Amino acid sequence: MTNKYSKLALGLVVALPAAFSSVSAYALEAVTLRLAHNLDPSHVVAQTLEKMAEDMKELSDGKMKLRIYPGGQMGGPRETLEMLQQGALDMTKGSASEMESFESAFSVFSMPYLFRSKEHFNQVLFGEVGREMMQLPKEKGFLPIAGYVAGERSFYAGKPIQSPEDMKGMKIRVVSTPTTNKMIELLGGSPAPISFGEVYTALQQGVIDGAENNEPSYYQTRHVEVAKHYSEDRHTSVPDYLVIATQTWDALSEEQREILMKAAEMSEKYEQVLWDKEVQNSREKAAASGATFYKVDKAPFRAALQPLYDDAKKDPKKYSWIERIEAVGK
Ligand code: GCU
After folding, report:
1. CATH 3.40.718.10 fits 153-237+282-327, yes or no
2. Ligand 1 atom closest to Cα of residue 76
3. N or C: which terminal CB in the chain sees fewer CB atoms within 10 Å?
């Protein structure tokens, strides 16, 4: 550490936010960052974060540690993102939908059928557009530092949903945002804003008729036990993000940020490999637990959801993100 850094470090020890759980005498050299998320430890993204903790420790010679609180112990993403803003927690995981109420640009990921392919999605998430978007919430108290692919979301319920007709009158759980709520309404259902951890019981008790998610989340949450019909309409691709509190970020030294960002970049690559395997694995295991997967004609869904794009045109800021995304790879 240079003199400049050690001086900065000493200054920061005093001003350090409560978010830091432990800081050694050599301040910024040793740090333990607390990370809370709402996923089961077996989830791909949860495993990725565990791996990132190992990588960060190794890259920093044991000086930089992550203490991870999985499974929603500190609340859902809304709560943990708010904790980040208040400086009460260092890091969390937030999906783009969960971040929409904090930064409206992320709403584009809830736009159905926006991405032409997995390649298109990856070019956006890991390219100029995605990286620029990640800088936006910094002034609002948190900064996404890694993006994780999360496949495509489809509907599942106690019956197949092969056309919007089938959804008439059904109560469907969504990560509640103006875009996702409108999506369900346009398909003839009613949206239910239930937290991820409560979806199983809500399905079991008939509080809701269905939900929507990617295959790994469908299987790992055991929703498969209470909603056996998974209809592959593949309406959205909503990435997850690893997010750090701006206060914590500002308090790290250049050296620590470099290590953190290196580990974050490694975690993005690791997660992509794990994800592809996990989708296949989850499909097989879900089928073995009694799930049926249905191929679905997307055209009637696309047509029913067109008004979301007509609405977006009225919001020039949002629409310019959509146009930029559509232009990627063309
Ligand atoms: C996915 C996503 C999570 C999100 C969850 C949900 O599993 O990876 O970040 O919380 O969906 O539907 O709430």
Report:
1. no
2. 10
3. C
